[in-house]
Amino acid sequence: MKANANEIKFFKNRSIIKFEGADFLGEIGIDGRVFKALTLARISVGVISQQAVENGLSILVHEDDSEKAVTCLIEEFAPERKSGKVSQIYSINNVSVIGFVADDLNKILSELARNNVFPLLLNQNSSEKRINIVVTSSQDEKTKNIIESEIFKKPKTVHLAIIGHGNVGKTLIEQVLHSSEEIKRRKNIHLKVVAVANSRKIAFNKKGFDNTWSDEVFAAEKSSNVDELINFSKENQLENLIVVDNTASVDFVKNYQALAENGFDLVSSNKIFNTLPIEEYRKLRYTLNKNNKRYLYETNVGAGLPLIDTIKLLHLSGENITRIKGVFSGTLSYVFNNFSLRDDKFSTIVNEALEKGFTEPDPREDLSGNDVARKLLILARELDLINEFSDINIQNLVPEALLSVSKQEFLSRLEELDEEYDKIKKNQEPNHVLRYVGDLHGDLQKEKGELDVKLISVPATSALGQLKGSDSIFEIYTESYGENPIVIMGAGAGAKVTARGVFGDILRLSETK
Ligand SMILES: NC(=O)C1=CN([C@@H]2O[C@H](COP(=O)(O)OP(=O)(O)OC[C@H]3O[C@@H](n4cnc5c(N)ncnc54)[C@H](OP(=O)(O)O)[C@@H]3O)[C@@H](O)[C@H]2O)C=CC1
Ligand SMILES: N[C@@H](CC=O)C(=O)O
């Protein structure tokens, strides 16, 4: 069915007159009296809908006529109002009508629902496939855009809010700006970065930021606050919203719930949410489900490597995963691969990992083992295990005295770790190297698995011993694969690979939007 631009009609400033009562549906003459009363009052009537469930009629009029329409119907039906047969006559103002021709109304309605648009009135002429829907004026532009992209196959605009523009966030914005034209051409998806935030402020650009985005963030005056973001999306009636969390913030994740309730899908490189107590973890999934929203976080484990998806698919398809182990941290891979081979101080190599953008914003998250522990817990929960962070046995590499000092002080005192790690290195068996590993094992059919995170010494010739650079390695043991695990190996950290992984999640969501 071909549609053309003339077939979309858009009328603002309308009101719905609601006429409700018990048991008058089907009674001969009621509709006629309604129209006659309105005609005599010289009120032109638009879309009409009869609701069996509510026992009522909804009639569309121009908002200038709404008061008059209510008054004249109240007069006409005075006896029925007195007897209780007609219970309510009132108006809903500030609505708009969009009329169009479409083959697949269900698809349009589901797109609208995913964007939190639920028409107040819908009227369909099935022979002509002409549909009129009435929505509140605060959602009319968004509704029109969604309908236009659906029926005219116009590029679907996806609005991105990027929270955090450090190593990963900044690289992601650059990658999106660089590829957006190509994606529009190949996928008919128009990715627009409309909000960028750091911990202090948030910048908005409804038309979409270009290469000057960082100047606009620098000049922004609004303080970084999720309510600002939600209001901005509502005021500008933005459809297809995705918020991307590229922070490591424990505070920002508290907003996920509200964002999902307000029409945002979520993408996150931040691992904090998925390692909160299981109650919180489940509550968000419930909210996402209820609001038809999704949350993707492929980069939470293995940066750009396709790990979470693989585990999810194996598990969903009924494959029994019996163990997952390996080097989960790109940072600690880099640190111990280099420290084992080179003659440099431990602190020198940690500083290198920091400069290369492999570490967490606070490198103690890596060195304490917490980051690896989070990754292990995230994988465990993908297998429906209900482990908590406190269940994990973690070998912390940071001296107790340096755990609670500021990040700056910690970095300035990093050399205090050198002697200890030199000793550990020297005390190994010949031809052995150090590796920091994670291991999810035990009976994974039970409610909880066993999670261990520790520093080990392995033969330099072993698979772990041969690891290079900042590579991570994950060995996934399953019942069908037996003794030979599925092995996923590659860059486990770095802004470029991580941003690329986040970008992948954005595209996955955009394509199903
Ligand atoms: N680096 C890597 O290889 C990988 C990183 N990740 C994850 O990516 C995330 C980002 O890492 P990275 O880019 O290196 O971190 P950075 O420290 O470079 O950047 C963090 C950004 O988040 C902002 N931010 C912090 N708190 C908030 C807040 N409450 N609200 C809004 N913005 C905030 C910071 O703003 P400000 O400057 O104002 O503090 C900054 O812009 C982390 O969660 C990390 O675990 C995941 C996989 C791999
Ligand atoms: N610091 C982390 C970054 C990715 O999650 C790591 O090194 O693995």
UniProtKB/TrEMBL annotation:
Pathway: Amino-acid biosynthesis; L-threonine biosynthesis; L-threonine from L-aspartate: step 3/5; Amino-acid biosynthesis; L-methionine biosynthesis via de novo pathway; L-homoserine from L-aspartate: step 3/3. SUPFAM superfamilies: ACT-like (SSF55021), Glyceraldehyde-3-phosphate dehydrogenase-like, C-terminal domain (SSF55347), NAD(P)-binding Rossmann-fold domains (SSF51735). Keywords: Amino-acid biosynthesis, ATP-binding, Kinase, Lysine biosynthesis, Methionine biosynthesis, NADP, Nucleotide-binding, Oxidoreductase, Threonine biosynthesis, Transferase. Pfam families: ACT_9 (PF22468), Homoserine_dh (PF00742), NAD_binding_3 (PF03447). Residues 306-507 form the Homoserine dehydrogenase catalytic domain. It comes from the Bacteria. Its cofactor is a metal cation. Its EC number is 1.1.1.3. This is Homoserine dehydrogenase. It comes from Chryseobacterium kimseyorum.
